[in-house]
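Sequence in, structure out. Go.
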Amino acid sequence: MKKLHHTATSNPAANTPKSEPPDTSTIGGRIKALRKKKGMSQEVLAGLLATDKSVISRWENGERVPTWEMAGQIANVFGVSPDYISFGSDHRDNNDYIYVGGLSFRETAVVRMIVDILRKDC
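Output:
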């Protein structure tokens, strides 16, 4: 009697290769990594940002980048700084960093002037 060798597994997921972690050297990769870390779908993130899933997909695939305002909204969703979203560095532990997110352009300019004055006095 001839023996049959069964090579396929009964678990279809076992035949699917594991996906590589997102490349966090890109804006899209950082957004994807943060989204995956939270267990969030593109649809959910799109809903939180009042945008479309296709926009999230384009960011994550490197076809587009979010505006600075949207980077701030993404940062708020994930609890990181807009600098982390945009540049991959998070200066919150750096004493030279002042987070001005949420301030208007004029308010940000005032903060910069104050910092410049203080630096000259030191």
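Check: The chain is about 50% helix and 0% strand. The domain at 22-89 is CATH 1.10.260.40 (434 Repressor (Amino-terminal Domain)).
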